[in-house]
């Protein structure tokens, strides 16, 4: 079975890996000049937070998403399972109650417990929610690890290659072009997300921290070497564009309110991309002739790609 995967974002690489692990002959092509160059996946925070996401997502996200943590732990040793800490400023403490009502699998934590979990937040927050079973990863390292594993398995991975128009030379095509597939999937819409990457040695965090706020909730995900990803806006727009001044100010203000050391942090990168989303905000696998479209990962790329990649491989091998 010869399979062509178009797109080396998280959808394409997870699908390619599931297929290659089951013995298919797989090739992956991507029009970007190198891994991540044109992929929304490169901008992601890398939170694997199935139970926090219940706040705004369908129950399916938690049901399928919690399996992703083991999937990533098996395939990317950099996956960190230390939970998610959700906090709010004293004036926004009602947001915590609201969040707690809509989510599951957490414990309430007080100021001492917050300080035990994250010593650098000592004395800054009085109340929070701790989702002990959640995890996070660095998407760029995770995608790099998947690509390396694919090469080990004999998969051909080529960049700077546009999807061909015909597919007669392969048995199946898996279309994982993300938002670029909108021409074939007219109900796909874009949800712009903006993020920034900062560096500071003045603060360390062990896990993802979410700051609740009535208008501008944000999260901070720690990475290696003093890097922190701060994200992310959610704007109904298909314009990749750049980060607006307003979003930059709001994200930075939010981070500064979590800890003033973020005020002294070095800005490494501003990033923006478009999350591909279907009307129900759930991913879908659609078959059209010999092509399988795997798309609509919305804000759950790393969380839901493993479960849907498994379904793609099932569809290929059982038809
Ligand atoms: C700021 C931000 C934060 C996020 N945080 C999280 C998070 O914490 N956790 C989480 O799970 N998800 C998160 N997401 C969502 C996640 O990033 C997306 O759901 C996911 O990246 C979508 O992956 P994809 O593989 O479908 O698309 P993409 O990553 O965009 O990959 C598509 C690939 O297809 C290639 N391509 C397109 N057209 C062609 C063509 N014609 N020929 C060849 N190649 C082509 C592109 O070059 C690209 O590499 C976040 C998103 C944003 C923007």
TrEMBL record:
<dbReference type="GO" id="GO:0009229">
    <property type="term" value="P:thiamine diphosphate biosynthetic process"/>
</dbReference>
<dbReference type="InterPro" id="IPR006076">
    <property type="entry name" value="FAD-dep_OxRdtase"/>
</dbReference>
<dbReference type="InterPro" id="IPR036188">
    <property type="entry name" value="FAD/NAD-bd_sf"/>
</dbReference>
<keyword id="KW-0784">Thiamine biosynthesis</keyword>
<dbReference type="GO" id="GO:0005737">
    <property type="term" value="C:cytoplasm"/>
</dbReference>
<dbReference type="InterPro" id="IPR012727">
    <property type="entry name" value="Gly_oxidase_ThiO"/>
</dbReference>
<dbReference type="GO" id="GO:0050660">
    <property type="term" value="F:flavin adenine dinucleotide binding"/>
</dbReference>
<dbReference type="GO" id="GO:0016491">
    <property type="term" value="F:oxidoreductase activity"/>
</dbReference>
<comment type="pathway">
    <text>Cofactor biosynthesis; thiamine diphosphate biosynthesis.</text>
</comment>
<protein>
    <submittedName>
        <fullName>Thiamine biosynthesis protein thio</fullName>
    </submittedName>
</protein>
<feature type="domain" description="FAD dependent oxidoreductase">
    <location>
        <begin position="5"/>
        <end position="314"/>
    </location>
</feature>
<keyword id="KW-0560">Oxidoreductase</keyword>
<dbReference type="Pfam" id="PF01266">
    <property type="entry name" value="DAO"/>
</dbReference>
<dbReference type="GO" id="GO:0009228">
    <property type="term" value="P:thiamine biosynthetic process"/>
</dbReference>
């Amino acid at each position: 079975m010869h399979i062509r995967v178009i797109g080396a974002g998280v959808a394409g690489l997870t699908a390619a890996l599931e297929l290659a692990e089951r013995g298919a002959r797989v090739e992956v092509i991507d029009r970007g000049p190198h891994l991540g160059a044109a992929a929304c996946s490169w901008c992601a925070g890398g939170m694997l937070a199935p139970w926090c996401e219940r706040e705004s997502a369908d129950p399916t996200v938690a049901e399928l998403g919690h399996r992703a943590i083991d999937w990533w732990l098996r395939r990317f040793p950099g996956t960190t399972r230390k939970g998610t800490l959700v906090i709010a400023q004293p004036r926004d403490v009602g947001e915590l109650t609201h969040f707690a009502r809509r989510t599951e699998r957490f414990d309430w934590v007080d100021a001492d417990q917050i300080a035990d979990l994250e010593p650098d937040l000592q004395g800054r927050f009085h109340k929070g929610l701790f989702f002990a079973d959640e995890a996070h990863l660095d998407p760029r390292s995770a995608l790099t690890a998947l690509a390396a594993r694919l090469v080990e398995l004999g998969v051909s991975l080529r960049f700077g290659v546009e999807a061909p128009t015909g597919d007669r030379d392969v048995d199946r095509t898996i279309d994982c072009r993300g938002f670029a597939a909108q021409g074939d999937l007219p109900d796909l819409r874009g949800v712009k997300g903006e993020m920034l990457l900062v560096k500071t040695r003045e603060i360390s965090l062990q896990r993802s921290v979410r700051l609740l706020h009535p208008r501008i909730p944000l999260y901070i995900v720690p990475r290696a070497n003093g890097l922190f990803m701060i994200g992310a806006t959610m704007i109904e727009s298909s314009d990749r564009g750049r980060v607006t001044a307003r979003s930059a100010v709001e994200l930075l203000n939010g981070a500064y309110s979590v800890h003033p050391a973020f005020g002294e942090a070095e800005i490494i990168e501003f990033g923006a991309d478009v999350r591909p989303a279907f009307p129900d905000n759930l991913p879908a696998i659609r078959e059209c002739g010999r092509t399988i479209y795997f798309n609509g990962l919305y804000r759950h790329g790393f969380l839901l790609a493993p479960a849907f990649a498994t379904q793609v491989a099932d569809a290929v091998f059982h038809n």
